[in-house]
Amino acid sequence: MASVYQHYQAVKGISPTVDEKKQQQEEKKKKKTAAAAAAAQAKKGGDGAAAASSSSSSSSSGGNSSNSRRRQKQREKAAAKAKAAEAAASGEKQTFSADKDKDFADWYEQVLRFAEIVDKRYPVKGMPVLRPAGFYMHNKIMNLLEAEWEKQDIMKAQFPLLIPRSFLEIEKDHVKGFAEEVFWVTRGGSHPFEDGQEYALRPTSETAMYHMFHIWVQSFRDLPLKVHQTCNVFRYETKQTRPLIRAREIHWNEAHTCHETAAEALENLENAYSAYLYLIQDCCCFTGQRLRRPVWDQFPGGEHSDVMDTVMPCGRVLQTIGAHYLGQKFAKVFDIKFRDQSNQYEHAYMTCYGVSTRLLAACLSTHGDNSGLVNPPRIAQYQVLLLPVVQKRSDRSTVDKAHEYAAVLRAAGVRVVVDDSTKSPGDKFFHWELRGVPLRVEVGPRDLKAQQVVLVPRDTKKKESAPAATSEQLVQAVQDALAALEERLRTKAFEHHRTHLSTCTSGSLEEVKQLLYERGGFVRVPFHSMGKDGEEADKLIHEATGGEVRGYVPGEEAPPAGTLCIATGLPAKHWGYVARAY
Asked: What pTM was estimated for this model as a whole?
């Protein structure tokens, strides 16, 4: 990295002196040497991993296919790291090149980097920078959700970032769930705070909001109270962090409500879930499995938690919705009570629910391919790329027509970018396909004569001519193409979900493990209890298969009479959905 002085020279147009040039050359040489050493070390590590795997395999009774696949992935990752280090040493420009099916983790990291969704080079673990393209899509998702909340009279508010320690300690079950994840602020400047307390960077907002709800709610006339905020929360994540999925700074929207009766609270929760389904299935074109979490894995301090788990391309699942019925537990702890219509005091019934950047992660992962992202039109920063195809730079008529078409589409509410740069067509295709623009609209001299454009959807890349003699024809053709692309994305994603839901028919945990590693997604197993007494059985399943009981579907028909729990041999009351999770 250039020094501040070198940067200043470059900005001012000052040429370096002979000595400075010599110093720069020496620094460059040192960097090359260091990068070459890193490449050698990465290669050595890969060889070591392969040797260790080989040794382990030979000492076992033949091993198994899942171990073989893991060893192969270790070798491939080590080779990729060595190649990247060698490229850095030679000064070679790195570009996106990843196989989503063979190594999803590598594809995910690369596509977020090269499509400029996030930048991990900010020097605080778990806090990458959301770049403009990534922030646009996350913010668009939040805006779409906020519009749904407004329809449901859930009003937007903003609560403070700092939460007094005393607030967190009020609800013991709740704080226990976050105790090891809290960031603490212990002083202002060099001085302790006036009240002698420590303050948490909010890990979630229940305690901050409910302190105020206690003040705001006095009568049944104050209900329902429904607020939401789009903000960030902080959790000291100790596991491996992953951009948009597992971070220490989490960007999300959370809603919190108070109601007069349990029935009203539960109805509100269903309405919220419907809004989430619209957001995920209609706007983001994917889906997941709605589950009720087992007691040992539900929201700390709540009565029950309904979630959506989405199957990622690697076969693991990712929670994309969290919706929690709190009953009266938090209302009693925070003394949120009201005079009912009989002039008697009653504690409120409460709910909370939220979505984060995990929703964006699932969306990008579901639809992307080996050329990069494939963005659903409703959240895409640019829905259309207008590309003038010219042989000569002097061909201004074609370029001007492209800008004219862009103005027409923008007036119709379509988000458009025009690329009239001097890059080659191949470079332009690569650049915009990587970034996932849903539709490319090409216009060349022949198209002008024919009064048409060429439409190229990002998912199929199949060219199709469309009439553009009038503004109405152009707008209709583009809107139809975007709608068709949306439907194809949705159909493909729903099929992916359907084909990653299996049922264990043998009653064998070995079959569950095989399904989890070979097919991925969910495996339904007969299970005896989703109460606290089922937790030990879940641990047995995890030890044997690497998966965990993610929950059950309320109202789903129970296993046939006489069916036994796959882990304990007790009578099975539920179908448990087992999966490997992030």
From this structure: 0.84
